[in-house]
Amino acid sequence: MVNSRPTAFLFVGNDNYSKDEAIKKLKLSLLDSSSRELDYKVFNGSDAKVRDILDYVSTIPFLASKRLAVIKNFEKFSPEDSTSLVKLLKEPPKFACLVLDAEDDSVVKKYPELSSYVTIGRFGELTDSQFQLRAKEILSSISDGKKISPEAARALKELCGEDLGSVSQELQKLSSFVGGRDQIETRDVDEVTGKNLNASAFDLTDAMEIMDLKKALSIISELILSGKKHYEIVGLLCWQMKRLFRGRVLLEKGIPDPQIASILKIGRRYHDRFFRQLKRSGLAGIEAKMEVLLETDLDIKRAKYDPALALEFAVIKLCLGLR
């Protein structure tokens, strides 16, 4: 998919790990070590200006034959800027290679003519067999000779989801954990990754639901001792609340449980817990919790309070139903 001949690429999908791997290969094919700093740049739709992108790709490269520009978060550009970027992909400057990174293929649906001008790479949801293959590839790059059983790979997928960056981190831990053994089994995944963020999200939500402040603070303490940052724990709770909110909306539309689980990527081992939480949560209550978490996130980022204190206040509010 990636080589030095095409000059414009469109990467779509939510598998950011594989996207980054493809960009690294493209970078290696175009740039040598002396030109990678000068002729490679990443722009982000959350803060980049199209004018700056145009200026960069229109400038003759310093050392390489082409400049490589990666444009991430395409969805965050305004409609006017999006149109300008699509035009740029159709007619890239002579000395530029462009990669446009989008979360889904809505850009292809909106601009169907793009498929005639760019090389499209799709990095979407992975089947169990595809996930197992990627897990094996990652593991082989971490540790020679180590393998992972199909059952362990499925357990890892359920615990970590399809974020291959997180999967890579967990496989590094698992590789060390099994020591001299040459295969990672399900019991190893449960032991090392069982108390991962996904599991902790459910534990925290359960504790808040029954107003068990002591248990909630204990879970927070365990996460911090394991190396998690205060803002990461806030993000974890926000992520769980967003899943519950989306699930509640779908539930009220009459969407059946299996379809909701598929849409929200709820693993089998968490299926019962998720729907138990979902069916005792109302939209107003979930929104109230999300407001508390957003305020806490801002307090931490603005250094208004000590992060530990801000998080503790948030947990107290969430457990006691305070605003």
Model description:
- The chain is of the alpha/beta class and 323 residues long.
- It folds into three domains: 8-122, P-loop containing nucleotide triphosphate hydrolases (Rossmann fold); 128-193, Helicase, Ruva Protein, domain 3, CATH 1.10.8.60; 197-320, Zinc Finger, Delta Prime, domain 3, CATH 1.20.272.10.
- It has helices at 16-30, 50-58, 79-90, 106-110, 128-142, 150-160, 164-177, 186-193, 197-209, 213-225, 230-252, 257-264, 271-279, 283-301, 307-320, and strands spanning 8-12, 40-44, 67-72, 96-102, 119-122, 147-148, 183-184.
- The strands form two sheets. Strands 2-3-4-1-5 form a five-stranded parallel β-sheet. It has a two-stranded parallel ribbon with strand order 6-7.
- Strand 3 (67-72), helix 3 (79-90) and strand 4 (96-102) form a beta-alpha-beta unit.
- The longest helix has 23 residues, at 230-252.
- The chain is globular, with a radius of gyration of 23 Å.
- The model has no long low-confidence stretch (mean pLDDT 85).
**Assigned CATH architecture of the largest domain:** Up-down Bundle
Name the strands of the widest sheet in spatial order. Answer: 2-3-4-1-5
- The total number of structural domains is 3
Mean pLDDT: 85
Number of strands: 7
CATH class of the largest domain equals Mainly Alpha
Question: C-alpha Rg, in Å?
Answer: 23 Å
Q: Please bin the fraction of helical residues.
A: 55-70%
Label the overall shape. globular
Most strands sheet: 5 strands, parallel
Q: Low-confidence segments, ≥5 residues, pLDDT <50? A: none
N- to C-terminal distance = 51 Å
Strand content: 5-15%
- What is the count of DSSP helices, taking H or I runs of 4+ residues? 15
Order of helices and strands: EHEHEHEHEHEHHEHHHHHHHH
CATH topology-level name of the largest domain: Zinc Finger, Delta Prime, domain 3
Structural class call reads alpha/beta
